[in-house]
Amino acid sequence: MKAQDIEQLQAHIENRIREVQQLLDQSAEFTEKKRAYKVTMRQQI
Predict the structure, then answer these.
(1) pLDDT tens per residue, the chain (45 residues)?
(2) What is the distance between the alpha carbons of residues 17 and 19, in angstroms, rounded to a whole number?
(3) What pTM, to 2 d.p., does this model score?
(4) Rounded CA separation 44/1 (Å)
(5) Cα→Cα distances 5→9, 10, 16, Å
(6) Which of 10, 30, 29 is nearest to 18 (CA)?
(7) DSSP letters along 9-43, please?
(8) Is residue 44 classed as helix, strand or coil in its secondary structure?
(9) What are phi and psi of 37, to 5 degrees?
(10) Residue 7 carries which DSSP code?
């Protein structure tokens, strides 16, 4: 593998990691909202 190939691969992997990190953040946010919603519903009963 040439150095250029490795650099391109590395950039591609870093982009992928960023995408996964964003998905994890969104998922965590969703879980938090869902939990807050459940707590709210419990308090109303």
Answers:
(1) 799 999 999 999 999 999 999 999 999 999 999 999 999 988 887
(2) 5
(3) 0.65
(4) 63
(5) 6, 9, 17
(6) 10
(7) HHHHHHHHHHHHHHHHHHHHHHHHHHHHHHHHHHH
(8) helix
(9) -65, -45
(10) H
